[in-house]
Design brief:
By secondary structure, this protein is of the alpha/beta class. 52% of the residues lie in helices and 12% in strands.
């Protein structure tokens, strides 16, 4: 058998240890400690690029604290709950272990029911909060954090976002009540990615069922994309491909087939979070693979009207989402910024067709 424990490679799998995130875990524990003593948890804002451990560390800390049952926790995946009514309905279900009132009840009535019945401290986790509109995020954060003053309850928020400017998008009322500890998650380096993947291999694969060459290829691909989750996904997919051909070991060709088959849906998922202008910029970058920022802006100007300030905002977002790399290089006198694509034009075009 190729796999010892296939679930090790599932997206929702939470390992017993999370390496290279000890500092972040300690910060989150400090914020949750008051709730373990019957007080309001402290607010935390987890910031960092995708696939840097924000969700895993939050879930890890909550798992360690769940046995004490001294507080309520409502975990909300914002990409699937994009309006305030859905969010407060989820909070109601998590706190009271029952369905919220039937549709037709206003959000204000629903919120009032939550606060009037809440007896223990409550921690609300807003994962991927940047998927909410600024209006929705502001409304939800303000409704939750004004509750202690208006209803005498004990509540706090853990929010996770990839956009470091997220707090700037909140309205003044939400910004005034959302005082938080910032927990920063830097990108994993190649050595860290390799160690994380190696731990999954040792736990999930049968001994000797993954060749060294195949493993190093996965490390190369995951490091190039700065995405450890994609590396974990490749390991699982390559293992399934090897099983399908009744092999006893995963080889490099299995990894290459997995990468070729999954790069397209992987990119398509990222493209779904971009607007038309951002996709246009990424499309040009993928078509040339490497280009200076000045040359890129000149090419873009022929297709999309965009200010230079907006152009750099788009580049910053693409880099933050790990769709491109931006680095300085030599060109004539001085130094020039170059943009490097992580996907080729063919992969980009196939991904666009899936939208």
């Amino acid at each position: 058998m190729i796999f010892r424990k296939r679930e090790v490679f599932d997206p929702d799998y939470l390992p017993e240890e999370i390496p290279f995130r000890e500092k972040q875990i300690s910060q989150l524990v400090s914020c949750i400690d008051p709730a373990l003593q019957g007080f309001a948890p402290l607010n935390a804002l987890c910031l960092g690029p995708p696939s840097t451990g924000k969700t895993s560390t939050i879930r890890f800390v909550l798992r360690r604290a769940s046995d004490l049952e001294t507080f309520h926790c409502s975990y909300i995946r914002c990409p699937t709950s994009k309006d305030s009514y859905k969010i407060f309905s989820k909070i109601f279900r998590d706190v009271f272990s029952q369905q919220p009132p039937l549709s037709g009840v206003s959000k204000s009535v629903l919120v009032e029911k939550i606060w009037s019945k809440l007896e223990k401290p409550l921690l609300v986790v807003l994962d991927d909060v940047n998927f909410l509109t600024s209006e929705c995020a502001s409304e939800v954060i303000y409704e939750i954090l004004k509750a202690p003053d208006e209803h005498g309850v004990k509540v706090g928020i853990f929010a996770a976002a990839t956009d470091v400017r997220f707090p700037l998008h909140l309205d003044p009322f939400a910004g005034a009540v959302f005082r938080y500890f910032e927990v920063f998650y830097p990108p994993y380096g190649r050595g860290e990615i390799r160690e994380i993947l190696l731990r999954r291999v040792k736990e999930g694969f049968s001994e000797g069922c993954l060749s060294d060459e195949a493993f190093e290829r996965v490390v190369d691909i995951a490091s190039g994309a700065a995405d450890v989750r994609y590396g974990i996904f490749l390991l699982k997919t390559a293992g399934l491909i090897a099983e399908s051909r009744r092999a006893l070991r995963v080889e490099v060709d299995d990894v290459e087939r997995a990468h070729e088959g999954e790069a397209v849906p992987f990119l398509a998922k990222a493209l779904a979070a971009l607007n038309s202008e951002e996709r246009a910029v990424l499309g040009i970058i993928c078509s040339v693979r490497e280009i200076s920022t000045g040359e890129l802006y000149s090419l873009l100007s022929g297709e999309v009207r965009m200010s230079y300030r907006k152009f750099y905002d788009v580049l910053e977002k693409l880099e933050r989402l790990r769709l491109v790399d931006i680095a300085f290089g030599e060109k004539g006198v001085g130094r020039t910024r170059y943009v490097h694509a992580k996907f080729g034009e063919e992969v980009f075009e196939k991904a666009m067709k899936l939208l």
